[in-house]
Write a structure and sequence with these properties.
Strand order of the largest sheet: 7-6-5-8-9-12
CATH class of the largest domain: Alpha Beta
Order of helices and strands: HHEEEHEEHEEHHEHEHEEHEHE
CATH architecture of the largest domain: 3-Layer(aba) Sandwich
Strand content: 15-25%
Number of helices: 10
Mean pLDDT: 80
Oligomer: single chain
Radius of gyration: 23 Å
CATH topology of the largest domain: Rossmann fold
Number of strands: 13
């Protein structure tokens, strides 16, 4: 799909969503949120519980098994022996660091730059995911795909003291360049990565075949993918085209002649709805969680409604 540009959508009332994402109120709310990953944990010891994988150095008991010759006597549950007269050893929940990659589409279609833009919303989503990951003891990489050039990258980041580095990187991003082939950038970025969790944040306004290649690039190497589609209100409702006879493709700069009739705008809405559904279906076929968020809805709506769709939940 062509990435159209509405010059009236450059600035929204109020401050940047990115600043709100780093506010004490939002950061405080995120302290009780933890991420659920299926099979993305690496081998480096960390703090994220990985159930189903035992580890003698864990802290949370997962199950008991009958004692076998050679088992570490320090793992014997002597209280169980006193009650039952049989020897059992404790097996602990493995604690492993989850390598988290947060990849942001910073191509021209995510602009124009300014508070409330798609890029502002995308970077605030990245800030939320990154903050949760750092608080959970995971290893975070941030990257931007500007289209047609090498991905910008920072990381690995560890611990909440890295929040300032993450904020500086996200604040430095600006829409630039054509969308190019996102799969190529992802292959380059994730080369050598084995297992991990990859969040891809984009408007995904490119061909369905290219979307499939991008998602396959995430799955290569055993990474678990999560997809966040960021759209603007202007993407969803092309009423701003009424009265125009020329539009500009934000990616290519190409001017296109149109006849903005009611019929044309209705067909656009139908095509966009089908495109959004196709992205959700492509993600589901690859066992990837997906989410849709729209500029103007606010971060509170994203925190309340979309985080659970991505496997990030409150801990009690």
């Amino acid at each position: 799909m062509a990435a159209l540009s509405d010059p009236r959508a450059s600035v929204a009332p109020g401050g940047r969503l990115l600043d709100e994402a780093f506010s004490p109120a939002v950061q405080g709310a995120l302290e009780r949120v933890r991420m659920r990953a299926r099979n993305a944990s690496g081998e480096r010891p960390g703090h994220t519980p990985v159930r189903g994988r035992s580890d003698p150095s864990g802290t949370e008991v997962e199950r008991h098994v009958a004692y076998a010759a050679g088992d570490d006597l320090r793992r014997v549950d002597w209280a169980a022996f006193a009650r039952l007269g049989e020897l059992f050893t404790r097996r602990y929940v493995a604690e492993r660091e989850v390598p988290v990659w947060i990849v942001i589409d910073a191509s021209a279609s995510m602009g124009p730059a300014g508070p409330g833009s798609k890029l502002d919303l995308a970077t605030s989503v990245a800030a939320i995911v990154g903050s949760v990951s750092l608080a959970g003891g995971d290893r975070v990489h941030l990257a931007a795909l500007p289209g047609g050039s090498a991905p910008r990258h920072v990381g690995p980041l560890r611990g909440r003291p890295s929040l300032s580095t993450m904020r500086s990187f996200l604040a430095s991003l600006a829409p630039a360049g054509a969308g190019g082939e996102p799969a190529a950038g992802l292959v380059s970025l994730l080369r050598g990565v084995r297992r991990g969790l990859v969040f891809l944040v984009s408007d995904f306004l490119f061909e369905e075949e290219a979307i499939g290649r991008a998602l396959d690039a995430i799955g290569h190497g055993g990474c678990e993918g999560k997809v966040v589609q960021v759209l603007s209100r202007e993407d969803l409702d092309p009423a701003w085209l009424d009265g125009r006879d020329t539009i500009v493709d934000a990616e290519t700069g190409e001017s296109l002649r149109i006849d903005a009739t009611t019929s044309l705008l209705d067909r656009y809405r139908e095509a966009l709805e089908a495109h959004v559904a196709a992205l959700a279906a492509a993600s589901a076929r690859r066992a990837m969680m997906s989410s849709l968020t729209v500029t103007g809805a606010g971060l509170r709506a994203f925190l309340r409604e979309e985080l659970p769709r991505l496997g990030l939940r409150l801990v009690r």
